[in-house]
Amino acid sequence: MKHERITLSKNIKGIFLFTFFFVLTITLPMISYSEVTLVFETLNQHQLIFEEKSFSACLILYTPAFAMLTRLIFLKVRNIEIKPELLIKWYKVCGVTLILLLISVPTYTYFIESKIKSEGYTVCNSYSTSRGADIWVTSQHYCIEKGYRVSSEIIDWLKQQTTEPTPEDVIKKVDELIANNP
Prior knowledge:
Blueprint: H1 8-45, E1 49-52, H2 63-77, H3 84-118, E2 122-123, E3 134-137, H4 151-160, H5 167-180
Antiparallel strand pairs: 1-3, 2-3
């Protein structure tokens, strides 16, 4: 690879990218761990409703690829020549990461969803979000089809309930929220 001098603007971009990927590399394991513990804490507390993102727990697998990318960016910012062998290693790590993701995401999803279902929860497609989160409820009575328009508000309301509301209470709340949100 040809060694070339980098300009100040490229150096600033490089420092920004280095900082971004460094922080991302540090936080990915924490995000993965917090997602898994959140699901199990919710199951232990037997909440009426909760969100679960199956993909989040597998983010830890990105850590080696992002660590190597952070190192590559650091070398570029420091104007140190990047050897082709190092790039080849990074490509291999990315390939292995992709393969592991293709295996682990469906596997984790299967096991975590089986555990959630065994605890008596069912998925509520009416409230599920485009952000990839599945919404799980203890009873389908809490899953009102027309509630998709006010899903975040009804989810918040259900989380705040200290006693289990009746299906009529939930329908009434959904109607009220829809009336207040034109």
